[in-house]
Description:
Structural class: alpha+beta
Strand content: 25-35%
Number of domains: 3
Helix content: 25-40%
CATH topology of the largest domain: Vanillyl-alcohol Oxidase, Chain A, domain 3
CATH class of the largest domain: Alpha Beta
Number of helices: 14
Largest sheet: 8 strands, antiparallel
Distance between the termini: 30 Å
Radius of gyration: 21 Å
Strand order of the largest sheet: 17-14-16-15-19-20-18-21
Amino acid sequence: MSATGAKWRNWGRTEQVTPLRVERPASVGAVQRAVIASGRSGLTIKPVGAGHSFTGIAVAPGVQLDLSAISGLVSIDTARLRVTLGAGTNLHRIPALLQPFGLAMTNLGDIDRQTISGAISTGTHGTGARFGGIATQVVGAALVIGDGSLLVVNETENAELLPAVALGLGSLGVLVEVTLQCVPAFVLHAVEKAEPLADVLDSLAARVAATDHFEFYWFPHTSTALTKTNTRLPGSAERRPLPPLKRLLDDELVANQVFRATCTAGTRFPAVIPRVNRLAEKLTGTREFTDHSARVFATRRTVRFVEMEYAIPAADVPAALREIDELIERRGWRISFPVEVRFAASDDLWLSTASGRDTGYIAVHRFYRDNPAEYFRAVEEIMMAHSGRPHWGKVHYRDAASLGEVYPHFGQFCALRDQLDPERLFTNTYLDRVLGA
């Protein structure tokens, strides 16, 4: 099915476009025909997922592909704990697809609205020093490349391309199927509490190494870290989930409704922000619960924001965070949104932000009604001084020349792009900036 394009906007309201045409293919063959037709018409073609990238990585001014009909379970290999999914499958649907087989994804991020293809293509990740981003769970994929043919990549076919295809920014072709290496279903024991920021930073390396999944938030203008420690337990372990009323009060009323109100007030009256942040610091209590992994990893976010996230060597996180604190106070800024800190294991994917090094992630945010540019550009300077790599789906200001200096396999990836998409059917303004035209 095809239609004249209507205006598309991403979730963060940082990007919008009116495509010339929207295609809604319901099969792999239909995707191939759409790619061939676009090439003949001289139009670029790009799939769009859930719109959760803050960069223009999914902007499709030519033909926009809606892959929502190419979703769900394609096949499962219970012996090897592997599942093949349609590329348009949303992350939040996957746990229910895996549950009948006693399986789970190894790790997830804290937002699960994205499609699986969008999540892996942008380098979406969770936290845990022994666990990689979602793309590291990919053991196979099928994509439609520039000439309209179907390229299959797995351990027996074109295996050498997997480190590029698993995290390809949507620049190598249109993903139609993704095969994930799963694990037996497990539960997580979660402990969330407020702790002195200085203590957390002083013991950070040991703490991250000793914990399955550790992360923390820090509200600027305060001295407290809101820590989240998740320990993996067998799927048979007793669950003690949060009572429904407490989950509603904490995660919906306070974390979303009240926070939205305070952010709106802070936009109009910036001087109140430090006081509000200190109040949030005092109101944050300890929570402890055990539940299915996906219910602990992911949280519901309805307050709209804009985000920049950088990956730096894990050992550099304390110094970089202290520099951000000093920057905010020196400039006299009033920042209502917290800074988020997470961790990931080194991997071998060519364009992974954790490629070749154990990684810490520092994410800064602004309310979507605030202009983030001055804050983000200044933070980016700090991150670049720590050999930082920006998240591909979050705001940054880097270009191909700059990014080529921090990715050892950048040249190899660009050469493969030339091979699979020589006519640049799958490009857009953002990809031209970060990979070269």
